[in-house]
Amino acid sequence: MPKKRKNRGRGKGGKGREAIVQCDLCGALLPRSKAKKITKRVSFLDPQLERELRSKGTQILSYAMTRYVCIRCAVHYGIVKIRSREERKRREALRA
Ligand SMILES: [Zn+2]
Question: How far apart are the CA of 62 and the centre of ligand 1, in A?
């Protein structure tokens, strides 16, 4: 059977079964290696206020928000792009 992707769309290798995660956008359950992990720094403050405070040298508390997104949602929301047959062969990190 012809393969569309060398890694079959996963990053698992010969590892066997792995953890199931839920897509944060549509709620689909999918294996961890098929999901896109998006980490974003979030702060509690209003962005404009934060910029002002930061320019005055204030330390601002922020935390990393991690979310998992399924491939269907990642493509739909423009987190990853559909790549052409040739481009898919490039081993380049697909970061959001
Ligand atoms: Zn989804």
Answer: 26
> How far does residue 11's CA lie from ligand 1's centre (Å)?
18
* Fold observed for domain 20-82: first zn-finger domain of poly(adp-ribose) polymerase-1 (3.30.1740)
Q: Encode pLDDT of 4-19 as tens digits.
A: 888 888 888 889 999 9
* Domain locations in the chain as residue ranges: 20-82
Structural tokens at position 8: 């079959």
For residues 78 and 96, what is the distance between their CA atoms, to the nearest angstrom? Answer: 9
